[in-house]
Write a structure and sequence with these properties.
By secondary structure, the chain is mainly beta. About 5% of the residues lie in helices and about 25% in strands. It has helices at about 65-70, 90-95, and strands spanning about 10, 40-45, 50-55, 105, 120-125, 130-140, 145-150. The strands form two sheets. The chain has a four-stranded antiparallel beta sheet, with helices on one face. It has a three-stranded antiparallel beta sheet with strand order 5-6-7, with no helix packed on it. It is globular.
């Protein structure tokens, strides 16, 4: 595990920088453990008031982050996440917009992102299931991922079940 610097990225065995996943999130990850306790390909970007973690394996490029706060999230820059470029509360609000849970945050005061309660499931017009709450998702390989948000496949044709990879009917629309 690499050392962490301010506004730097801690590589937890991931596939490198954001955007290196070929546009689908990739498989990334060597099963290492990030400083925030998550496993797999997550990278932590530490700032003074907040640490933002990114897991390329589940990112489906909804772009809520780059559209919501481009001063913090800029895929053309390295590191692509600059957690000191805005107020922690504003960053947290934008991270919570990420439908897949690829982005999570941890305030510097030691708190944690509070999952939505009660848990909600919303089916999109194209069949994806957007789930928010205190989730424990088990993938096809048996890996368990605890996350506050997930985008699950509703058509059953994903190559990465239970996550939607937009390869089936769920991928026919951009909605």
């Amino acid at each position: 595990m690499a050392a962490v610097g301010r506004a730097g990225a801690e590589d937890a065995g991931g596939s490198g920088s954001a955007g290196s996943s070929g546009g689908t999130g990739g498989s990334g990850g060597s099963g290492g453990k990030a400083a925030d306790g998550r496993t797999g390909g997550a990278r932590a970007y530490r700032g003074d008031g907040i640490t933002v973690s990114f897991d390329a394996r589940v990112c489906r490029h909804a772009a809520e982050c780059v559209h919501g706060l481009p001063t913090v999230f800029d895929t053309a820059r390295r590191p692509w996440i600059m957690p000191d470029a805005a107020e922690p509360g504003v960053i947290a609000e934008v991270v919570r917009r990420c439908p897949t849970g690829a982005l999570t945050y941890r305030p510097a005061d030691g708190g944690a992102e509070v999952p939505d309660r009660p848990t909600t499931v919303r089916r999109t017009a194209d069949g994806r299931l957007l789930v928010r709450g205190e989730l424990r998702v088990t993938d096809a390989s048996g890996e368990v991922r605890e996350t506050p948000r997930a985008m699950l496949c509703g058509c059953g044709r994903s190559a990465e079940p239970p996550y939607c990879d937009r390869s089936g009917e769920c991928g026919e629309h951009e909605g």
